[in-house]
Amino acid sequence: MRAQTLDAFQVIADPGRRQMLMMLSKNSMTINAIAENFDMSRPAVSKHIKIMYNAGFISITDIGRERHCVLKQDGFNELQDFINYFDKFWTSKLSKLQSILNDKSKQ
Amino acid sequence: MQQDIKQTWFFQQSPGEVWEYLTKPELIEQWLMKTDFQPIAGHKFRFTFNAKPGTTYEGVVHCEVLEIKPFTKLSYSWKGGTQDKSRSFDSTVVWTLVPKNNGTELQLQHNGFTLLEDVLAHTSGWTSLGKKLEGLLIAVQK
Q1: Which CATH number, 3.50.50.60, 3.30.565.10, 3.30.530.20, 3.40.50.720, labels domain B5-141?
Q2: What pLDDT does residue A3 have?
Q3: Which of A46, A56, B24, B90 has a Cα-to-Cα distance from A96 of 20 to 30 A?
């Protein structure tokens, strides 16, 4: 099944996918085992898995007839990159504001 | 993993003065970006900057005023993305002003990123997973 490629924030915007990621954070699981926890069709679960796989949140290994999903750091790193970027962004902007206000109070 | 951005800055000026720098476009522009901000809840506005070719982010941030309490609190949505459209973000910026020691404590929270909260139960998952692995590797080396 073809699944769209979504960015990291779109991936975690879906409550079902967040729940899957949380389940996987405790243990690796087969797609079937994941599907048992959700009130949705197996193809629907597979589609979510594919989306998370495409965005680098999980890796999938075939063991026998089972497909095992394991959490992967890449997707989470992408989220972290955003946060780090804006953290630095605000530090530089606010220090600029501080110097403007400091100059102003000296006048 | 850090889940959202929190910064606290102190300014000698009164909340009223600091507020002006958060809400008057000509003053915002001096330290942040060009904007058509208006201090009205529901007002849609943009921040723009000259994105140099080859840099990551688009030169525009799309915003909407979510909450405004004069001299106390201001929040707006903060949406944008990378120039190559490969990544986008939908986040919220919240400014809180607290009078303190004859000046103002300005708190910034940027957490759009709030969706992460649920997932971040997972953070501890990663850390413990990493530690477990590390422990195993050390055991193997011994």
Answers
A1: 3.30.530.20
A2: 61
A3: B90
